[in-house]
Amino acid sequence: MNTVSDASVKNSLDAIFQPKSIAVVGASRREEAVGYAVFKNILMGGFQGIVYPVNPKAESILGVRCYPSVLEIPNEVELAILIVPAQAAVQTFRECIEKGVKGAVVISAGFKEIGAEGALLEKEIACLSLEKGIPLVGPNCLGVINTDAAVAMNASFARCSMPKAGNIAFISQSGALCTAVLDYAKGVNIGFSKFISMGNKANVTELEFLEYLGRDEQTDVILMYLEDLSHPRELIEICRKISGDAGQHKRAAIQPPKVKQSRAVGAGHPKPVLAIKSGRTLQGAKAASSHTGSLAGSDEVYTAIFAQAGILRVDSVDELFDYAKAFSGCRLPSGNRMAIVTNAGGPGIMATDACVRYGLEMASLSDKTRAELKKYLPPTASTMNPVDVIGDAQHERYEAALKAVLKDKQVDGLIVILTPQAMTDIEEIAEVIGKIVSKSKKPVLACFMGIVDVSKGVAILEKWKVPHYRFPESAARALAGMARYAAWISRPRTECKQFAVDQEKAQSVFQKAELEKRKVLTDFETMGLLAAYGFPALAMELCKTPEQAAAAAERIGYPVALKINSPDILHKIDVGGVRLNLDSSKEVFKQAGDLLARIGKKMPQAKILGVTVQKMSSKGREVILGIKRDPQFGPILMFGLGGTYVEVMKDVTFRLAPIRQLGAYNMIHSIKGYKILEGVRGEKPADLGKLEECLERLSQLAMECPEIEELDINPFLVYEKGRGGVVLDARILLRNAG
Amino acid sequence: MNTVSDASVKNSLDAIFQPKSIAVVGASRREEAVGYAVFKNILMGGFQGIVYPVNPKAESILGVRCYPSVLEIPNEVELAILIVPAQAAVQTFRECIEKGVKGAVVISAGFKEIGAEGALLEKEIACLSLEKGIPLVGPNCLGVINTDAAVAMNASFARCSMPKAGNIAFISQSGALCTAVLDYAKGVNIGFSKFISMGNKANVTELEFLEYLGRDEQTDVILMYLEDLSHPRELIEICRKISGDAGQHKRAAIQPPKVKQSRAVGAGHPKPVLAIKSGRTLQGAKAASSHTGSLAGSDEVYTAIFAQAGILRVDSVDELFDYAKAFSGCRLPSGNRMAIVTNAGGPGIMATDACVRYGLEMASLSDKTRAELKKYLPPTASTMNPVDVIGDAQHERYEAALKAVLKDKQVDGLIVILTPQAMTDIEEIAEVIGKIVSKSKKPVLACFMGIVDVSKGVAILEKWKVPHYRFPESAARALAGMARYAAWISRPRTECKQFAVDQEKAQSVFQKAELEKRKVLTDFETMGLLAAYGFPALAMELCKTPEQAAAAAERIGYPVALKINSPDILHKIDVGGVRLNLDSSKEVFKQAGDLLARIGKKMPQAKILGVTVQKMSSKGREVILGIKRDPQFGPILMFGLGGTYVEVMKDVTFRLAPIRQLGAYNMIHSIKGYKILEGVRGEKPADLGKLEECLERLSQLAMECPEIEELDINPFLVYEKGRGGVVLDARILLRNAG
Fold first, then answer.
1. Quick one: B183 and B200 in the same domain?
2. B180 — contact with chain A (CB < 8 Å)?
3. Hey, is the C-beta of B108 within 8 angstroms of any chain A C-beta?
4. Residue A39 and residue A44: Cα distance in Å, rounded?
5. Residue A415 pairs with which residues in a beta bridge?
């Protein structure tokens, strides 16, 4: 996919979001027409520049003089909005270019989403915009909105009026979702800085929008709805910068292909990026591909990309805005320890459950805090966390409790719960919360349970910009999201390591395989390649006859294992091609003969190179390390526990290569069965350092050897801490061969 | 805990919910007093009977003549509402009894929830109500509400007025949550049949309320918020009846202790019961215990109880009402295959993801349906599922699509999504949906995305009683809840089996242990007991010397295992007390001597009875079966996969004993690693029938042998289908001994 060139991004997206003049090409007098809605929205939205309707059949629209063509507008036009039939779009865009526009938004549908014919038109218009360096949003989109009072542009056909201004930016790949989100936001009084419908992303994609929003002073939080993604490594880089990475790290030599060096976005403060990526399930992905005509990668890979980019992934629109409210209104917590202040025991328990479920800790209040609480609360009140100010609490009690708890150094954040009981002075309590929160350096989320009775209180909370929720679960989830993001931006910054490896050896293996037109490497090539990249391997020899095997076993030392060696047999165990724990030359001789005979008979079509004699390893914990080259996303690294049971549980984790040291650490720590590596039942911890190193070596291998299509080290045996590990078995498939 | 006797339930709760006359003892003229709020709510709520305020210091309240004591009311009083200090409550209740009331609601706080002193008062009042057979709701509650127009009683101090009438009943153990729920329901226009704050449940508990609501004609759906539960087996029985079990099954001889034979509740149609049980996490449970003064059982056990009762367990209030809306407005689906009709691709994908995530299948539409859809939809519309009627769809297109899809026999239910796009005629579409849904035998949930623009459409959906949601995820979750409940009520009804077992043998084992004051059974006793209950065991002999062991091995046949036999050693492997795979008498002799010597030296304090010689089993899949006696809930059955890895994953499931055959089946099928039992990598399926049987035998053992505190069969080896399995190792701990 082509995207606008780097140099032009800043200027060009300024033309999209802050044009001084707009031409609405295809503006209409018919009230049901999209061209009417767009023009009306710009005009009535209070646009601060000049807007020109273009329509050869109309004299004027909504009282504004109309032009038959964009070329006939006597003044400069910065931004063109196109609402013309797809067939006419390319020609119209050419005219706009001729007119000298600096940006375009193509609202018209009828492109890629309708099939091959539309895709062709889309390619044409995309090439044109790329060639001329004119950023083009869409086609097939709802438009863009900038609420900044200096611009005040609603260049969309959304049915509602200009949304409220706010510090949240929303980017969507679904125009229809935009209409729903705008309506939802209006209902819950949420404001936006920029509102962007990306449409088919023919030219401008989420990358450029993110980069722009990272620098946008009106934007503090960025929300995205995505159905696919084309440049994951660039996304990771940009999002890391938006989250505060200044890009000043020394770079290791290895670099992902095609990474653009973006300018310092997000230089001010970190801006959280939250995203919904739909099509998570197989069925959903199928629906998505029939909807957008694009093929999305597997969900695990998206999870990996988002983890590496520091994007908080959410599953639904309400979750998205629950988080956004918290991020847009509060400081980040400096830790994980949360307190709850409530006038109701039950909801306090529910909030506690939810906090723990979402990974937060319940703060343990200091004796000083508890003594302070006892001073102001009745004897039946709980001064433990959750702090229960009791059902008849009024604002004084809330005030005392909030002040005492927020002062506690063991508390990183707070949820304050109100249920509308008979004595509850809801509005006064809301005022008290607002005043305290406005001065607090710790995040405070309010949960006013209910709708009607609490509504005036909620309005007061909004006045004070206190994030508020109807139910404790949503508040706890949002607070947990903040804590995760806070942990992300304060994570240790590590680098991609560059190990000294034997690249020549690797190349010679690939060349030999290519010469022989083989797609599968032999065991010896595989082990040799891994050894060249510094992986620990077991002593082994390839033997053609039982005699040779017996002699090799004597050299290697007992016990040994025998494995059939054939480029045509990938899963040796499945065909009975492995014999373990042989401890004499006699036994090796006998079993080697048997193995060769049986497999030869069982798989007469397989080319058998001999048997591999390999030193038996001592016992260790089995893990799996792998590389898979995704047709769309390039090399993906995989890590998981070994063993049949765990394979059934699918306890594996993925990352896009390359990974930094922290990435390797996170992979190891993010599997469910991590405890097994830590040691259970008195077992000592496994050598996690060695695992980390091997994952980093794997990452380097994946980046330096594009010849590899798939690599599986299964199992890798990891020994106790300090004792390393060993590759027990591995297989490598090459690309473009066979 | 004491509960009202069976015989009195029906009459007594009629007195609570349908009194002809009420005395509000502790009614007040002070507007901020609870006694004012309660009296006002009854009076202004339009109560159809007579209400008498009782207060020695007032002449009248709100214009109604006041009485100094309940005894001085000249007429009959059916229900007494007590709002007096806890210290005076017992005496006041005595007067009410003297007056002849048939029920009481004690709103006053100051009982168990404040500590020992209050608990004593609570016990006194509970005993009194039990003794006199007068049902008492509370203490420490918000009150009860009956919206039935013939009664119209709001006997609560909720700050909002009489809630809207509806077919949903709500029972809560938290009064404060009641206030929040009432306010929430008012905001989203949900109505209730009965609204019940249970308070401390001193006398009337959820059991009696459930039984009452099961028969209540106004109630179709029952919601509960629980913090603890005292009579799980009764709850299971009652909920099963409410869900349509007529209680006509032949009962097996074994019965849980203390099961009350309830009358046929829910005789009409099945009523779904949904519950939040808070205190799920350790920290939440701690908060709950400090709040209610009660100790709740472990969360897994609650999950088991709810599964056995057919209660849908949810985690939050909004989830609870999302489900309730669906259940109260729709027919149940007859299967799992759902369709989606949408005017927006993105939300369609999100709905698909959510359906699959929540366990639904995406229906595959028949050719006939697709042909029908093609007739009415534009060529770019998707006639696959999700059906995309395209953004410019108006009501005609929705109508055609809904009719075609609902007619399809491969569709069991439907979600219809609307986003408010420029051309969308929201109100007309809502009307169309309403008309179609009112005639549909399949459930249809609407998702009108947004708030403001869609509000008029939503009002129309409410007029037609179409359950509606803001986001597709909530609709999908609710639909999945309906499908699960539909599967539950149409599940095969099985019985508790009664196997012929050797109870005498079991008793002799317990007696011997009791005589010897042993808490731990020996291996031989354990295996003997299991054999007496029909579990398959391996041939084994206890030997005191290496010579005996060698001789025993000759009798048993090779290979054999040796295990140290000591009542003081529970985990034999951990102390190195096991030798496997011995295949000659010489080897057995040598290893037995070594074992006895080493363990004797390593654990000099352990009483060593000898070594057990046991036949080595053939290979099978390891599972764990167990019994644990919960101090609160009695015997709990456990099932899980064996092996260290799986133990780390905590892949186990629980049920309260006794279980029916279906319960055993469900236990086996509900573990995450179930696939391993089905067979992976070409393995044949395990003998699931034998596992089922063993779980049923375990259930019988648990019920018939209260002497057992804990039993662990770990591992049980299960062989391929038809080949049974075998107990490899087991241990039994007894109660009240040692």
1. yes
2. yes
3. no
4. 8
5. A340, A445
Task: Kindly determine whether residue A160 and residue B315, on different chains, have CB atoms separated by under 8 Å.
Answer: no
Structure tokens at A484: 């995760």
The CATH number of the domain holding residue B679 is: 3.30.470.20
How far is the C-alpha of B415 from the C-alpha of B333, rounded, in Å? 12
Other beta carbons within 10 Å of B377: 21
Interface of A with B in 627-656 (CB under 8 A): 641, 643-649, 651
Task: List CB contacts (< 8 A) between B450 and chain A.
Answer: 179-184, 186-187
Nearest to B291 among A183, A388, A450 (CB): A388
**Which CATH number characterizes residue B425's domain?**
3.40.50.261
Please check whether residue A532 lies inside any domain of the structure: yes
Give A17→chain B minimum CA distance, Å. 22
The answer to whether the Cα torsion of A428, A429, A432, A437 is positive or negative is negative
Distance to chain A for B417, nearest Cα, Å: 11
**B36-70 pLDDT per residue, tens:** 999 999 999 999 999 999 999 999 999 999 999 99
In this predicted structure, which of A655-664, B3-12, B107-116, B356-365 has the lowest mean pLDDT? B3-12
Are B356 and A281 a contacting pair at CB < 8 A?
Answer: yes
Q: Which of B334, B328, B77, B71 is nearest to B218 (CA)?
A: B328
User: In total, how many domains does chain B have?
Assistant: 4
Is residue B209 domain-shared with residue B102, that is, in the same domain? Answer: yes
Domain contains A657:
yes
Residues 217-236 of B with CB under 8 A from A: 225, 227
- Within this chain, do residues B194 and B321 fall inside the same structural domain, yes or no? yes
Residue B279 C-alpha, separation from nearest chain A C-alpha, in angstroms = 6
Q: Is the peptide bond before A139 cis (omega within 30 degrees of 0)?
A: yes
- B201, B139 in Cβ contact below 8 A? no
Q: Is A610 on the interface with B (CB under 8 A)?
A: no
Interface of B with A in 405-434 (CB under 8 A): 419-424
Of A588, A616, A644, the position where a domain reaches its end is A616
Structure tokens at B348: 């369609």
Q: Are residues A352 and A315 both part of a single domain?
A: no
Contacts of B724 (CB under 8 A, 6+ apart): B536, B687, B690, B718
Shared-domain flag, residues B260 and B128: yes
Please report residues of B whose CB lies closer than 8 A to that of A457: none
- Give Cα separations from B648 to A619, A649, A678, B571 (angstroms): 19, 12, 11, 17
ipTM of the complex: 0.88
Residues A635 and A593 in one domain: no
pTM for this prediction: 0.89
Domain residues for the domain of A54 are 6-326
Out of B616, B645, B678, pick the residue that ends a domain.
B616
How far is it, in rounded angstroms, from Cα A708 to Cα A337?
A: 45
Most A CBs within 10 Å, among B645, B651, B672, to test the A interface: B645
Q: ∠ CA(B577), CA(B583), CA(B589), 5° rounding?
A: 55
CA pair distance B401, B392, nearest whole angstrom = 14
| Same domain flag for B159 and B216 | yes
CB atoms B182 and A315 under 8 Å? no
Domain presence at residue B629: yes
Residue B1 pLDDT > 50, yes or no? no
Q: In the predicted model, is pLDDT for residue A535 greater than 90?
A: yes
Residue B679 sits at the chain A interface (C-beta within 8 Å):
no
Average pLDDT over residues A430-439: 96
Cα–Cα distance, B728 to B538 (Å, whole number): 7
Query: pLDDT tens digit string along A154-164?
Result: 999 998 789 99
* Residue A551 in domain: yes
CA nearest to A273, candidates A473, A481, A466: A481
Say whether both B626 and B602 belong to one domain.
Answer: no
Distance CA B519, CA B733 (A): 6
Residue with tokens 């040598």: B590
| Alpha-carbon span B733 to B570, nearest angstrom | 10
